[in-house]
Every structure is written in C-alpha cells, then in structure tokens.
Design goal:
The protein is mainly alpha-helical. Helices cover 51% and strands 6% of the residues. It contains 6 helices and 2 strands; from the N terminus they run H-H-E-E-H-H-H-H. The protein has a two-stranded antiparallel sheet. Strand 1 (37-40) and strand 2 form a beta hairpin. Helix 3 crosses helix 4.
C-alpha cells in the first residue's frame, strides 16, 4: 500500500492540530500574511501560491516561519552571559546556522518541485480514488 502526498499532508496537519489542545493553528494564515499564499474563503475556496515558485526563496520561508533559529538557547539571549566573550561554541554554532541558511537561500520552491510530474501523479492518484468511491 502507498499513500499519496495529499493523504500524507492531511495526516500531518491533523497530527499538528491534535497536539495543540484546541489552539488555533495559523500556518496558512501566516503564509498568507507573509505574501506566500492567497486564500479564498467559502464553497470552492482554498489556497494557491501568490507568487511563482521561482520567486519563493526557501531560506526566506524558513526565516519567516521559525520563531527562533538558535541552535542553543544562549544564541538568542539578550541578557548577560558571563562567558559570552570567550564562548567559542556560541560563535561556531552561530556560524553553522548562517551556513545552513545560506544553503537554503540557494533554493527556491521551483527547485523543490522539479519532479513535478511525479509529485502531480501522486496527488492525482488520490483524486482518482476519491472519484471512484
């Protein structure tokens, strides 16, 4: 048995919502507010990209959706740290995070969907199964 991407995403969304104890999940709303998605309400509504995939930088999406990009807690701390001036680990981990983001900056959504036919066929399989029922 093989699940389609549609089902995979549906299950991940349900899991994410279920573990928040009734709190509202705002991922789509956040992406809409940050100009990545358009949302259409009501019957026949849904979501769609606001910009072409080539104009959506993955590094920027990560920065826009993550609250903290600190590898360790003290990287984002604005308070006093007694060893801050000599903490080599802090410097190394900061540099590592910058390198991580730099790699992501080299990719767009268009890069992530290059196997578009394969991805589309996975989603279409789910639509065909729904029509057959």
């Amino acid at each position: 048995m093989r699940l389609t991407l549609h089902t995979d995403y549906a299950l991940r969304v349900l899991i994410h919502v279920a573990i928040t104890d009734g709190k509202l999940i705002t991922v789509v709303s956040d992406l809409s507010q940050k100009s990545y998605l358009d949302t259409v309400r009501g019957r026949g509504g849904g979501i769609r990209l606001r910009r072409p995939p080539r104009d959506i930088n993955i590094g920027q999406v990560v920065r826009a959706t993550e609250d903290k990009l600190d590898v360790i807690g003290c990287l984002g701390r604005s308070g006093y740290c007694p060893i801050e001036r000599v903490c080599v680990l802090r410097v190394v981990l900061h540099d590592a995070m910058q390198a991580f983001l730099a790699v992501l900056d080299g990719y767009t959504l268009a890069d992530l969907i290059k196997p578009q036919k394969a991805l589309s066929s996975l989603l279409l399989l789910d639509q065909l199964a729904a029509r057959a029922q």
